[in-house]
Specification:
The chain has 204 residues and is mainly α. The chain has helices spanning 4-10, 15-23, 27-48, 55-71, 80-97, 103-109, 125-136, 140-151, 156-163, 167-188. Helix 2 (15-23) packs across helix 3 (27-48), helix 4 crosses helix 5 and helix 6 (103-109) packs across helix 8. The protein starts with a helix and ends in a 16-residue tail after the last helix.
């Protein structure tokens, strides 16, 4: 959060000036941009997102991605508001299109993926319930990247273009999402006496 002095000084600066400061590494400048435009971003997200719980996630993701682009010299140069709201609209469309807890991810990443995955009739119902609960407990961003990598089979470069990341960041995010799913599943799985699932199961 920028200081009162920084906020007072920023009143005379246009968004373009603040964007230039962000590119020079000034995080206070970006905090000021956030405070200027977050309400508009929330209104756009609330109008377009089907699930109210996703509004804050969409807004946070739009600001995070825009900051990441500015940090590497990309993103908007002048009209920050228009760029941000376009990002909010795009993320809202994807949030509406992607299923919350897609069974396809369970099929690809389940501990028994090699034996038929979540669709395998030999997998016990309690185990399937634990797998689904584990997936639904993940952050929306993690579910999203698991969908792109495990179901649609996108490469890190393709995911990076979709999610506004670098290929390296996309790979790291996918790895964190798979590990989070594994840990979530271990906390919810029934006591079957079987060894825990491998983190490097199919889909990596």
């Amino acid at each position: 959060v920028p200081s009162a002095a920084a906020l007072a000084a920023a009143e005379s600066h246009a968004d373009g000036d603040l964007l230039a400061a962000v590119r020079r590494g000034n995080r206070d400048a970006y905090a000021i941009l956030y405070q200027r435009h977050v309400d508009s971003a929330r209104r756009v997200a609330a109008y377009r997102v089907d699930r109210a719980v996703d509004v804050d996630d969409v807004v946070a993701e739009a600001f995070t991605r825009t900051f990441a682009l500015l940090a590497v010299g990309r993103g908007p140069n002048v009209d920050f508001r228009a760029y941000l709201l376009a990002s909010v609209r795009n993320l809202a469309m994807r949030a509406n299109a992607l299923p919350e807890c897609p069974d396809e991810v369970l099929v690809r990443l389940s501990p028994r993926a090699g034996a038929g995955g979540a669709g395998d009739p030999t997998v016990a119902v309690p185990e399937l319930a634990a797998m689904r609960s584990a997936l639904c407990a993940l952050k929306p961003r993690w579910r999203e990247i698991l969908w792109y990598t495990a179901v649609e089979g996108h490469t890190p470069t393709q995911v990076a273009a979709i999610m506004g990341l670098t290929p390296h960041a996309a790979s790291a995010l996918a790895a964190r999402a798979r590990e989070a799913l594994r840990r979530s599943y271990l906390s919810m799985r029934p006591l079957t006496g079987e060894p825990p699932p491998r983190a490097d199961s199919q889909g990596e």
